[in-house]
Write a structure and sequence with these properties.
heterotrimer; A mainly alpha (255); B alpha/beta (157); C mainly alpha (226); A: 255 residues; mainly alpha; 2 domains; C: 226 residues; 0% strand
């Protein structure tokens, strides 16, 4: 297989690749999950392989790039960069497949902890507190800006790190900032959302008086217990619909 | 109890395992049973990166897991054992009694497999392996995360 | 409500629905963002904020991992704001908004699943071309799927807005005051339960729980002092 050294080539189209990564889940499906989107995102980085071996290197790499994949969407760039780089380094196809497969789990778990269970609820919790304290629209704007500074930075770092390290991508994940951020995100999320909940209760129940506050406490506490113990059967949505149905019935009967 | 969840998942350790199951079960260790990963230091490093520092990750071949299982069961911490294929868990289950329940968490599309559930794709041979496991008295259900309802084996094989 | 306003709401709901999974995941799909902007379209930001906060709590119940199925609260919040605004004020519209929003969220979740099945079929049919590394087939599959999701998001928003106008028509003003209060209490109680249970699942029983407890105590003190 012809290896193309990245140092001798013109600059890789990482910007175009990043733009496509913003759509990485656009064709999410149960068969390949993010696979098709991953292939689409990797394609610009593979284009300079089109000349090698009459195009077979390019087509084989692209086919691998679109195979089953699933990880946290913001960290997909790490796998895209790493596999594209490995393809340029002439790493055998089966090893590239192995690398992609091995990245799914770790990038999923790291991203879920860092973003879905960290950065997102932290910033959303701060915005909830802001709205409850009457900051209004600026709190929402602040959330969108601050959240996305982190979001875009993470996507960009992931793609560049993947491309820089190739098959040795585990080294990129040793990045101390990333490790520290992941370790801190859990406690920070727990604390911020913990503060937000009572503050938000006060905000939402401002118009409630007397008996309705007592009823609210019972409904909320009972709901938490039910949702915790019946977690495989009951979702927040079903509980909400059931409670609203009961309320509508009670309100209709007891005039 | 020590190993609270025996899981078959070809993505091995990912968010559903660490956050989805790990948090509510308050786990202290994860056993990853996979011969290829056990033989490959960089893959082990990758999987360790995805797991919080306070949770131990133990890598084992199927043979090692077979020997170590009773030791892990005596561990005072709660653990999850995850394997990438059915054969590994079939071996651990032995002739019954050692593994009460097996959770099919995710087996994804591959040539030769057909869709059974949105996160379970099986070949006919694999479906038969799961049935054989159940015939030995193991309760086999599919459930990706704790907030989904478990699907009994007969509904997906 | 004018046709222009309805069309703006439809466009906003579509963007919001597209953002959730497909493009670009910048979290305008969060109810906390979808609600206030819908409120601004209707010239009623406070009600958008209130419904946004309510549904943000429901959203905390969701972890979008792997092939899990979940409801979609973005377009649902847009529809909820629309019905709550028509009710005139928060006290009259919170519960009705929650009702419309939760039903729309359920519809959204069903369509998300359906689109993933449709995408899987399209991908399966294209297996040969994909295995041959055909870049144009790959791009076509991807772009078509994004178009499909945009149509889906528009459909869900339209269903939500339709439901909102039916609710306005038949339920608005017919409920006795006590019934309205019951609905409001149920809406806030369920949202609070969903948000708390969802957070507890993320926090777990380990060291995170102590941080959560410390947060709740601080929050109670802060809320009390205000």
């Amino acid at each position: 297989m012809a290896a193309v050294s990245p140092t001798t080539r013109s600059r890789p189209p990482l910007g175009r690749c990043l733009l496509r990564l913003f759509t990485v889940q656009g064709s999410w499906n149960y068969e390949r999950m993010q696979g098709v989107g991953m292939g689409v995102a990797e394609e610009p980085l593979l284009r300079d392989l089109r000349g090698a071996n009459g195009g077979t290197t390019y087509h084989a790499a692209l086919a691998r790039g679109a195979h089953f994949f699933n990880a946290h969407p913001y960290l997909c760039g790490l796998a895209v960069g790493a596999t594209a780089r490995a393809e340029h380094d002439g790493v055998p196809g089966e090893q590239v497949e192995r690398l992609r497969a091995a990245l799914c789990g770790p990038l999923g778990s790291l991203g879920d902890r860092l973003v879905w269970a960290g950065w997102l609820p932290i910033t959303s919790g701060l915005a909830l507190i802001g709205v409850a304290f009457g900051l209004g629209f600026p709190a929402i704007l602040g959330f969108v800006i601050v959240y996305n500074v982190g979001h875009v930075a993470l996507r960009w770092w992931a793609l560049r790190a993947g491309w820089a390290y190739g098959a040795r991508v585990a080294m990129a994940l040793r990045e101390p900032v990333l490790q520290r951020a992941t370790a801190l995100s859990g406690p920070a999320m727990a604390f911020v959302v913990g503060v937000a909940l009572p503050v938000v209760v006060r905000y939402l129940s401002g118009g409630f008086v007397g008996w309705s506050r007592g009823l609210l406490a019972v409904a909320a506490a009972g709901g938490v217990a039910l949702l915790w113990w019946q977690r495989a059967r009951l979702t927040g949505l079903r509980f909400g619909l059931a409670l609203l149905a009961v309320a509508a019935l009670a309100g209709g009967l007891w005039r | 109890m020590s190993i609270a969840l025996f899981r078959i998942d070809d993505r091995l350790i990912h968010g559903q395992v660490v956050v989805g199951w790990g948090k509510p079960l308050n786990i202290g260790f994860i056993v990853l049973v996979d011969d290829a990963v056990r033989a490959n230091p960089w893959e082990q490093e990758l999987y360790r990166m995805g797991v919080p520092a306070e949770i131990d990750v133990v890598f084992a071949t199927t043979a090692e897991a077979d020997q170590q299982l009773s030791a892990w069961e005596r561990d005072p911490r709660v653990g999850i054992l995850v394997a990438g294929d059915i054969a590994a868990l079939a071996r651990l289950a032995g002739n019954g009694g050692r593994v009460e329940r097996v959770n099919v968490g995710g087996l994804h599309h591959r040539p030769g497999r057909t869709e059974r559930l949105r996160y379970v794709y099986l070949s006919d041979a694999e479906a038969a392996e799961l049935k054989a496991l159940a015939a030995r008295g193991v309760e086999v259900t599919a459930q990706d995360v704790p907030t989904a309802s478990p699907v009994p084996l007969e509904d997906f094989t | 409500m004018s046709l222009d306003t309805q069309l703006f709401l439809l466009a906003w709901g579509t963007l919001v629905g597209l953002d959730l999974v497909s493009v670009p995941q910048m979290m305008i799909a969060r109810p906390l963002v979808a609600g206030p902007i819908a409120g601004a379209i209707l010239g009623d930001v406070p009600i958008g904020l209130e419904l946004g906060v309510l549904f943000e709590l429901f959203q905390l119940d969701i972890l979008p991992m792997g092939a899990t199925r979940y409801p979609e609260y973005g377009p649902a919040t847009v529809a909820a704001v629309s019905v709550a605004h028509a009710a005139g004020n928060v006290a009259a519209g919170l519960g009705l908004g929650a009702l419309v929003g939760l039903i729309t969220a359920m519809v959204g979740g069903l369509t998300l699943h359906a689109i993933r099945v449709l995408n899987a079929r399209a991908v399966h049919r294209a297996t040969a071309a994909l295995e041959a590394g055909d870049a144009s087939v790959l791009a076509r599959l991807h772009v078509t799927a994004i178009g499909r999701d945009a149509a889906r998001a528009a459909f869900v928003t339209a269903v939500g807005l339709g439901l909102a106008s039916v609710t306005r028509e038949y339920l608005g003003g017919t409920l006795p005051p006590r019934g309205v209060t019951f609905l409001n209490v149920a809406a806030v109680g369920a949202a609070l339960a969903a948000g708390t249970a969802g957070t507890l699942r993320l926090v777990g029983r380990g060291p995170g729980f102590r941080w959560f407890a410390a947060g709740v105590i601080s929050g109670v003190v802060v809320a009390w002092l205000r």
